[in-house]
Amino acid sequence: MAADPRQPKPLTRQTLTEGLWKENPVFVMLLGLCPALAVSNTAINALAMGLASTFVLLGSSLLISLLRNFIPKQVRIASYIIIIATFVTAVDYIIHALSLELYNALGAFIQLIVVNCAILGRAEAFASKNPVRHSLVNGFGMGAGFTLALVMVGAVREILGFGSLFGVALFGEQFQTWAVFILPPGGFFVLSFWLVLFAVVAKRRAAKEVAHGS
Questions:
Q1: Longest dimension (CA), the chain
Q2: Contact residues for 14 (Cβ-Cβ < 8 A; gap 6+)
Q3: Are 126 and 18 in contact (CB under 8 A)?
Q4: How do residues 156-175 score in pLDDT, each as one tens digit?
Q5: For 164, phi and psi rounded to 5 degrees?
Q6: DSSP-assigned states of every residue in 104-117
Q7: Of residues 144 and 14, which shows the higher confidence score?
Q8: Which terminus of the chain has fewer Cβ atoms in its 10 Å neighbourhood, N or C?
């Protein structure tokens, strides 16, 4: 008997881990590149933006999954945006209350989480079609993958641009910082490096799978 297509796929380890590698929002799907480039001049800013996006992703996935059978198809995208905007507003106030310096560093990119394609795409492609537990696990994996990507970019930029990591100096006074890495061009350079590295590793893994399969 054929499986019911309306039934959700079983919850597996891949549900959690696909956002870290196979469907990494930044390095594979190339989503959310604007904050990945704009606020990743330090690892702290990158981590904060990643955690904020993960919070929004988890909250919106939870609510959309709960309401998936009640939201009319004709207004689903508008409904998803309203739900996402609600959690973005909450995280905006939280960051503002916790650290004004961090809030000013992230600037308008906190509010722009509303239009982050990685979050809206998860709402449409996964949360709206799966139960709460699946949606939360997948949302956490995607958020972790997005945070990891931002921190990887931010760490390299901070080390080369400031000679520090998470605000802790790594080198002596003789270290010559590369100011270009804290500027927008440096973001493109570092992101390009990680994209190439991910592509090379993915290609080698695919070749190994083919070789083992044959």
A1: 71
A2: 22
A3: no
A4: 999 999 999 998 988 878 88
A5: -140, 170
A6: HHHGGGTGGGGG-H
A7: 144
A8: N
User: Domain boundaries in the chain?
Assistant: 40-168+178-213
- Is the backbone of residue 188 left (phi > 0), alpha (psi -120 to 50) or beta? alpha
Q: DSSP character for 10?
A: P
Q: At CA 80, angle to CA 131 and CA 135, rounded to 5?
A: 25
* Residue pointed to by tokens 């190339």: 30
Q: Are 103 and 110 in contact (CB under 8 A)?
A: yes
> Whole-angstrom Cα distance, residue 182 to residue 200?
26
The residue written with tokens 């308008």 in the block is 108
- Using alpha carbons only, give the angle 46, 152, 98 rounded to the nearest 5 degrees: 20
Q: Tokens 């695919």 belong to which residue?
A: 206
Q: Which among 122, 154, 110 has a CA at the least distance from the CA of 23? A: 122
